[in-house]
Amino acid sequence: MNPSTVLTVLCLGLAVAAAENIPIKDCGSKLATITAIDISPCPQIPCPFKRGTTGNITVNFTSKAEITNATSVVHGIIAGVPVPFPLKDKNACHNMKCPIQIGDKVVYKNGVPVLKSYPTIEVLVKYEIVSAGQDVICFTVPVQITA
Ligand SMILES: *[C@@H]1O[C@H](CO)[C@@H](O)[C@H](O)[C@H]1NC(C)=O
Ligand SMILES: *[C@@H]1O[C@H](CO)[C@@H](O)[C@H](O)[C@H]1NC(C)=O
Ligand SMILES: *[C@@H]1O[C@H](CO)[C@@H](O)[C@H](O)[C@H]1NC(C)=O
């Protein structure tokens, strides 16, 4: 496993990390329970995402619903205002196996392009998988955009 891996178990909406207190937070996962989140690169929080590269996100979750279709939705929260982060492909079923049955353990993997036009600021990234208007999973992670 990548040494810059962040491995966090989310429990009752609070991030509980074994070694250090990593502020990845559940922001209202409804149709699933997150069991692990892996962000690369992320040697420390905020995760340094370099412009012109791709940040990789892996989320493991256990589904509480049947899911046949879902959308990936990513925002950067800047001064309290959510700004959409464009993805190459919003169809979350291209990043995990669909259809999903209740109780399925699902691995979701996606890349977030860090565009050269982004300002080099710290931003709270809000990552959601949405199905039928409800959050399958939702988490936030602080990210530092670097040049
Ligand atoms: C997610 O699940 C897969 C398959 O079970 C496993 O190989 C991987 O290590 C898990 N990821 C994390 C971050 O625990
Ligand atoms: C993200 O994933 C892509 C495709 O698998 C890979 O080429 C790239 O090196 C990864 N980036 C990081 C920072 O792990
Ligand atoms: C997407 O999933 C919802 C909930 O399961 C379902 O009601 C809807 O018909 C599905 N839409 C498509 C295009 O499959």
Automatic annotation (TrEMBL):
CDD domains: Npc2_like (cd00916). Belongs to the NPC2 family. It holds the Pfam family E1_DerP2_DerF2. Its main location: secreted. It is found in: Secreted. Residues 1-19 form the signal peptide. Residues 24-143 form the MD-2-related lipid-recognition domain. The keyword Secreted applies. This is Epididymal secretory protein e1. One of its GO terms (biological process) is intracellular cholesterol transport. GO terms for molecular function: sterol binding. One of its GO terms (cellular component) is extracellular region. Keywords: Disulfide bond, Secreted, Signal.
